[in-house]
Automatic annotation (TrEMBL):
Its main location: cytoplasm. The keyword Membrane does not apply. It holds the Pfam family Methyltransf_10. It catalyses: adenosine(1618) in 23S rRNA + S-adenosyl-L-methionine = N(6)-methyladenosine(1618) in 23S rRNA + S-adenosyl-L-homocysteine + H(+). Belongs to the methyltransferase superfamily. METTL16/RlmF family. It comes from Agarivorans aestuarii. Residues 207-217 have a biased composition (Polar residues). GO terms for molecular function: 23S rRNA (adenine(1618)-N(6))-methyltransferase activity. It is an enzyme of class 2 (transferase). Specifically methylates the adenine in position 1618 of 23S rRNA. This is Ribosomal RNA large subunit methyltransferase F.
Amino acid sequence: MTDPKNARANTKNQLHPRNKHRQRYDFAALIASCPELKRFVANNQYGDASVDFFDPEAVRCLNKALLQHFYGVKGWTIPKHNLCPPIPGRVDYIHYLADLLAKSQGGSLPKGSSVCCLDVGVGANCVYPLVGASEYAWSFVGSDIEAASLQSAEGILALNPQLQSHISLRLQSNKKAIFNGVVQAEERFELSMCNPPFHRSAAEAQKGSQRKQSNLKANAKNKQRLNFGGQSNELWCPGGELSFIKNMVAESQQFSQQVLWFTSLVSKEANLRAIYQALKQAKVAQYHTVKMGQGNKVSRFVAWSFQSPEQQKQWLASL
């Protein structure tokens, strides 16, 4: 019979080998870095220290502690209505992007500010740039259609001057565009990344939250709220993630010489077939699907490039 404690400890083994969150949380160390976390920590049914993951305030404080302890990010916070991302999964995306570039330069991990990454939909949390700049010293441009989200991200950067030279933020004023209006003439990015809104409507997002909470046997009083937080542009858009990614693929053709690798998370595996068809129609040189494991959940992102393997090597050699 499997020891429940060992089973819980192993659920993080699917995370990327360089992910700092593969071990169970050391709450004593996290509290030392972020004392306010202490009031949210209590023993769970197994006698282990934990937080209530259905309490949005507790999850926000845990994120603040993780970012402070592991990445030196001070004072992280987001408005209550904005998406509160799971840090370990976000970190995985960054590490797998580093691997994607490393394949084109003999396995050497790309580090330094000459590596530029565009985060489409950076959000109020700014997590991808914060982690990427901390782990690899990459430069980031974070774009978003919500000025209020960018204001929140600016507030985080104001408290972290060591990261300000690595991260800039831009408003996407055209809600129907993705790269147009953000990527400037003659500007080049080694990577673009995106966590697209995956639902087609607010009603679908609500049903998804209720189903998730039911599966996790959430307390009945929580069943009417979105346990992952988030507002409209973060969680849903007309046509859902498939429509969003297909539009991204189509628009990426205009920037084929300015972005080495375009990437996007894909939450629904059933959408991959249609995405592959869109990529073939766009006549990309290469595309890959990278799987990421997070406990019992399997995530993935699709990456595509208009550059041949030899062109990729030349591009990265010029950094």
